[in-house]
Recover the amino acids of this structure.
């Protein structure tokens, strides 16, 4: 009976030992690597991370890299950033690069930048090795920055902006698009303020100096080191085109006004013709009353027969004179033309 109990106890202890070896075997390799790298990670920490579904290799290897580079970053900090959705290896790489370049970059700042979605390692690289931004962007809708000088000549410019990352303003700072837009605006303003396009062509460096003096990197994640005019060409004569367009518009306006005056003159002419015809009608009506007046004069005794004949003689004499002169007239008191 006693031997049976010991056998059962031995079996139970053996099973427990196998389970322990199986569990520890999953972490022993990483534990030994961290231990011999002076970046100790406890077995219980490894078990806890496994239960919290943390990638053990990512955290342990990042811890080893940090310690080997002289960075004091604990396992808990790495695990916390991993659980927050951060990119732990990229953060460690950026911190190592920043330390080598003597850039002041702390763990809290680095993790905040990483969680904000910025590429921290690229930012550190750009801070160490400044990069060149084309203005306008190569994949943009325009290949040049077009501006017009005061003499009406268009100039087409290309610029290259050398920048480096400002780590302190990386979170919340404006991106490259803002730099490109501000530089483009500065170039347009500078060219537009030039009296002649020749001044710009003779001294293109004046554009760089003027734009640099505006402090275009304020509020951005970059520090502008230089602005260089890569190319500048003469475009179209915009001033002449505008003048030609204005002249064409004036011509059409004057033509419209002239047409309006002509229409008014034609309307006035028609009105005058209508008045003439109206007056002619009044004359005809008045002449129609003459025979009536003569008859009334006979009846009232105001006109005698001899007076009537003298009137007829005067009319005949008038018609004869008109015929000799080559003209025709209407006899007084008669209707219809005289022949």
């Amino acid at each position: 009976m006693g031997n049976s109990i010991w056998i059962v106890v031995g079996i139970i202890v053996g099973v427990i030992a196998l389970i322990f070896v199986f569990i520890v075997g999953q972490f022993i390799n990483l534990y030994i690597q961290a231990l011999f790298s002076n970046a100790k990670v406890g077995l219980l920490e490894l078990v806890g991370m496994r239960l919290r579904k943390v990638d053990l290799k990512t955290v342990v290897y990042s811890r080893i890299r940090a310690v080997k580079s002289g960075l004091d970053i604990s396992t808990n900090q790495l695990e916390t950033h991993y659980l927050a959705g951060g990119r732990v290896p990229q953060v460690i790489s950026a911190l190592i690069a920043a330390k080598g370049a003597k850039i002041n970059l702390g763990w809290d700042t680095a993790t905040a930048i990483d969680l904000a979605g910025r590429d921290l390692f690229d930012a550190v690289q750009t801070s160490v090795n400044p990069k060149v931004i084309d203005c306008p962007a190569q994949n943009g809708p325009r290949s040049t920055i077009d501006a017009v000088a005061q003499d009406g000549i268009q100039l087409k410019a290309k610029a290259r902006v050398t920048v480096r990352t400002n780590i302190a303003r990386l979170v919340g700072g404006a991106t490259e698009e803002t730099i490109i837009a501000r530089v483009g605006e500065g170039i347009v303003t500078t060219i537009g303020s030039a009296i002649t396009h020749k001044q710009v062509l003779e001294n293109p460096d004046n554009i760089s100096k003027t734009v640099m003096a505006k402090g275009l990197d304020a509020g951005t994640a970059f520090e502008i080191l230089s602005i260089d005019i890569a190319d500048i060409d003469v475009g179209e004569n915009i001033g002449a085109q505008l003048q030609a367009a204005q002249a064409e518009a004036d011509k059409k306006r004057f033509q419209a006004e002239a047409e309006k005056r002509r229409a008014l003159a034609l309307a006035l002419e028609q009105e005058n013709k209508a008045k003439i015809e109206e007056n002619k009608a009044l004359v005809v009506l008045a002449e129609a009353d003459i025979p009536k007046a003569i008859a009334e004069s006979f009846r009232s005794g105001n006109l005698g027969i001899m007076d009537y004949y003298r009137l007829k003689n005067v009319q005949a004499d008038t018609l004869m004179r008109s015929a000799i002169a080559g003209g025709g007239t209407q006899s007084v008191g008669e209707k219809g033309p005289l022949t």
Summary: Residues 2-128 form one domain. The radius of gyration is 54 Å. The longest strand covers residues 222-237.
